[in-house]
Amino acid sequence: MRDLRNDGVPLHGLRVVLLAGGAGGSTFAVGLRDVVVAGGGSLTVVCNTADDLWVHGLRIQPDVDSMLYGLAGVKDPVRGWGRAGDSDRVSQELREWNLGWDWFALGDLDLGTHIARSSWLREGAGVGGVVHRLQERWELGARLLPMTESEVDTLVMLDEGTIHFQEWWTRHRAQREPRAFANPGIESARPAPGVLEALAEADVVVLAPSNPVVSIGPIVGVPGIADAIRGGTAPVVGVSPIIGGSPVRGMADVCLRVVGAECSAAGVAQLYGARDGGGLLDAWLLGEEDAAEAPRIEGLGIRPVVTPLWMSDVALTRALAADALAAALTLG
Questions:
Q1: What CATH fold (topology level) applies to the domain 4-82+110-150+193-329?
Q2: Residue 62 near residue 20, CB atoms below 8 Å
Q3: Regarding beta strands 155-158 and 242-243, do their DSSP bridges make them parallel or antiparallel, or are they unpaired?
Q4: Which of 52, 235, 273, 274 has its CA 20 to 30 A from that of 85?
Q5: Domain locations in the chain?
């Protein structure tokens, strides 16, 4: 692990807030947690909850659970989501009853999480309270917060109708061309308890290498969150989810096309915008493959930092996290 203290960068007691969603976000969070905790700091992760949906009467939170399982060390390393070593006997039995979706199988251990969550929600615990209870089971080394208490799902607008994001991604593998994405109710949503406070107290804010449209977009779309980031004193650094002109994982290229953004490191930086110009970023990490885009990013008013982005193993992920913190702390 790179030691920022050897570079003259103060790390002890650092308060870091990460905005994240998806498999890439949870992988990066583990490396960031390791670096921050090793320096005696604290990490708060604000999770995307716009992927959430109801299935079998249960509230499913894919991004929250990926973050929970990843930080707990129980995430399936092959699929990148769900519990390691899980089985699917319950889902198979439900299919025998012609119940649910055969394209959205839930593991048995995973179902335990969803049952607990839904029970607590029905008891009135609230989304934030439920996330707090879930993370008490494991020693995560980080605090998880949902972006909002409100049910703000992501819908995909197609020529033939509107479907939930999970159906578009999981069932159709993003092969049906969207006209737009929507988050009904987000205009009246409020940041979950603790989110604005964490941003106000942060020493560093990091945007994970998550999908900028359907993972990070809904988080900063909750009224008050983007303003808190722009108006805060903490430097803001983002990590590109695009390497060599292609998304590392998922369908960010399709999502970017829908919102009129270029699928490139510079294109995503432009989508987020420079904080000095009313956007979100002070610095932007881009891969060595995209070094030629650095002058363009600098022209946007964002400091470009060229560094290896592939999170192929734990050591590389920690090194990337350390680079993100160094970039933030050496701004100015």
A1: Rossmann fold (3.40.50)
A2: no
A3: unpaired
A4: 52
A5: 4-82+110-150+193-329
**165-171, Cβ contacts within 8 angstroms, sequence gap of 24 or more:** 165/50, 165/51, 165/214, 166/51, 166/53, 166/62, 166/104, 167/101, 167/103, 167/104, 169/250, 169/251, 170/103, 170/104, 171/101, 171/103, 171/104
> What are residue 146's DSSP bridge partners?
47
Each of the 332 residues of the chain gets a pLDDT tens digit; together they read 445 544 545 567 899 999 999 889 999 999 999 999 999 999 999 999 999 999 989 999 999 999 999 999 999 988 878 899 999 999 899 889 988 787 888 899 999 999 999 999 999 999 999 999 999 999 999 999 999 999 999 999 999 999 999 999 989 988 999 999 999 999 999 999 999 999 999 999 999 999 999 999 999 999 999 999 999 999 999 999 999 999 987 789 999 999 999 999 999 999 999 999 999 999 999 999 999 999 999 999 999 999 999 999 999 999 999 999 999 999 85
Tokens of 240: 């590109």
DSSP class per residue in 32-88: HHHHHHHTT-EEEEEE--TT-EEETTEEE-HHHHHHHHHHHT-B-TTTSSSBTT---
pTM of the model: 0.95
Rounded to 5°, the CA angle 268-271-272 comes to 95
Which is nearest to 24 in space by CA: 307, 215, 257?
Answer: 215
Phi/psi of residue 15, nearest 5 degrees: -100, 115
C-alpha to C-alpha distance for 240 and 284, rounded to whole angstroms = 7
Residue type, 77: P
